Amino acid sequence: MGLNRPLTLSEKIVYGHLDDPAHQEIERGKTYLRLRPDRVAMQDATAQMAMLQFISSGLPKVAVPSTIHCDHLIEAQLGGEKDLRRAKDINQEVYNFLASAGAKYGVGFWRPGSGIIHQIILENYAYPGVLLIGTDSHTPNGGGLGGICIGVGGADAVDVMAGIPWELKCPKVIGVKLTGSLSGWTSPKDVILKVAGILTVKGGTGAIVEYHGPGVDSISCTGMATICNMGAEIGATTSVFPYNHRMKKYLSKTGRADIANLADEFKDHLVPDPGCHYDQLIEINLSELKPHINGPFTPDLAHPVAEVGSVAEKEGWPLDIRVGLIGSCTNSSYEDMGRSAAVAKQALAHGLKCKSQFTITPGSEQIRATIERDGYAQILRDVGGIVLANACGPCIGQWDRKDIKKGEKNTIVTSYNRNFTGRNDANPETHAFVTSPEIVTALAIAGTLKFNPDTDFLTGKDGKKFKLEAPDADELPRAEFDPGQDTYQHPPKDSSGQRVDVSPTSQRLQLLEPFDKWDGKDLEDLQILIKVKGKCTTDHISAAGPWLKFRGHLDNISNNLLIGAINIENGKANSVRNAVTQEFGPVPDTARYYKAHGIRWVVIGDENYGEGSSREHAALEPRHLGGRAIITKSFARIHETNLKKQGLLPLTFADPADYNKIHPVDKLTIQGLKDFAPGKPLKCIIKHPNGTQETILLNHTFNETQIEWFRAGSALNRMKELQQK
């Protein structure tokens, strides 16, 4: 390899995990790296499909340490204990499948109630210098402990668990230099809210964001994790912080002083080299950074808290806050809960409670038990809060919301990471804003977006005006963490007698059938299923919420294919023209009609298609229902890879303006697949109904390995071919 130059921290960690460093070509943004990650983590909604794919690979055991985390299938309804009991009952079949598959194939199993995957990883598995992949887009949370932790689809996880080198396009590196120090109401969350405003939802695509500079030391370890976690919202491959004393403190407090001592010994390798080169450099002075709140409907619409009220008035957004929600994988640390409790305590001292409804989601069983012991949970209840289960809950749409009707315009504020249309409660009229937990708490007490806790006054029960003081709280508990209940199942040494059953009549689980191989021909006369207008996230392609229960059953979950995407032809969601009958109907029904009649189809998309979650169902569903290609102006990284893994063609317009040449009634022929090669564009013939044609060029990012996936029908099919050889 021999780069002979100063390296960024992310380069040290990534290149340190190369499969064959001596022969690896390295060019940022160009070459594909073959890597050997240290471990795999999967949340329960994506682990079902990952484990089904691993089972069909025929391998006896996973090749690297791997874990499953039950956090996505618990719906917020009545409160922690009741909701957990209900989830265990409703999801028993899925939990049994994951527990038994984990036991059989050597995967650790964190039971429901243990907490959110990313908090568990930070508490137990992340460490400075690790390369970890996780089947969830917020896996970069582990960058708060100096690791390179990357969100992927389930098929990528299967590769790593099978002992196959994992491929990643060599990332560019964006440097964020932090100077000054955090103080007052400004929190770590404000750093990433500001960066999201600068870079937008696609500005980090294909890059690792690397924070450095003297300002880093003013941020706690869990605060750094918050910043890395929400880096997913700018499309970044991952984000990372350099090793420092705040990480050492956290490692020691979570029972890993031996790892901290090792990190101290090698600390020069766990920071960027002086003089290293960043592809882009952003500077933020933390002393000048103001509290931010981003939204609605997109996480990169940034506003200072001081200005959001007047912007909302001008835009016609509801000022009245119906619900404030704190927690999530982004902001549920001990420090987050402490700062929120410090705000709540002041309100209680003046006889006030929250004007808005208020919910609290602890990040893990350890956090829940510790904030109960230290009184934070009770303070948050006293101010009007309800403590939910240690799970994702409303952040991913697992929320049985009763206070509004669907279609009712309203505002909520959260300390979550995403605020796409309908994400939290399936109501497209909910205006969701993301901010820090302490700002959520202050706004929930005030009940309005037109409140700036830094300058505005509240009126106490006694009629006297008072101002909230900026919260102060310990970053870690003074006593040791209370681990709470033991929720971990270690895989047995001997799993030979372990059975994994999937009932053929199950509505929740379905064994996978291999996808068909490429027939060796160009793709002729593809029907356009839908031409998507505007933002199309993985939530639009494969909705979560009530659909999460079908994540292990490909045919059932395919009934949500693209139901949230807006059809350019009529401006409606889930309404497309059937080219044969000329009738408008739901997208999944139309796709099933085409499949039943042997009609292959294509989707036309806009910018950053597939941003958001890592869910590979957004790629499996179109493949299952007869899709062959997705043609867009640009793709989000994880979704583009997921499409390739399932044997689909993610293609981009060589000229983005060509998006306007294609109409939903046209047919497309994609030529050049017999000579399919890296870097070589494909031709697309647009056939208009009036008999005229025009030709455009389509680009792709396939390398040789990925072309083999396409020819075999999927990456899994290709893996089996290689095993047979």
Task: Characterize the structure shown.
There is one protein chain. The chain has 725 residues and is α/β, with parallel strands linked by helices. 29% of the residues lie in helices and 19% in strands. The strands form 9 sheets. The protein has a 7-stranded mixed barrel. Strand 23 (566-567) and strand 24 form a beta hairpin. Helix 2 crosses helix 4 and helix 9 packs antiparallel against helix 10 (257-265). The radius of gyration is 25 Å and the shape is globular. The mean pLDDT is 96.
Keywords:
Aconitase/3IPM_dehydase_swvl; aconitate hydratase activity; six-stranded mixed beta sheet; 4Fe-4S; globular; 32 strands; single chain; seven-stranded mixed β-barrel; alpha/beta
Q: Uncertain spans, ≥5 residues at pLDDT below 50?
A: none
Supply the number of helical segments: 22
Name the strands of the widest sheet in spatial order: 22-27-28-29-32-31-30
Gyration radius, rounded:
25 Å
Please, what is the oligomeric state? single chain
Characterize the overall form.
globular
Largest sheet: 7 strands, mixed, barrel
The SS-based structural class is alpha/beta
Distance linking N and C termini: 30 Å
- Beta-strand percentage range: 15-25%
The helix content, as a percent range, equals 25-40%
**What is the averaged pLDDT score?**
96
- Using DSSP, what is the number of strands? 32
Enzyme class: lyase
GO biological process, one term: tricarboxylic acid cycle
Keywords: 4Fe-4S, Iron, Iron-sulfur, Lyase, Metal-binding, Mitochondrion, Transit peptide, Tricarboxylic acid cycle
Function: Catalyzes the isomerization of citrate to isocitrate via cis-aconitate.
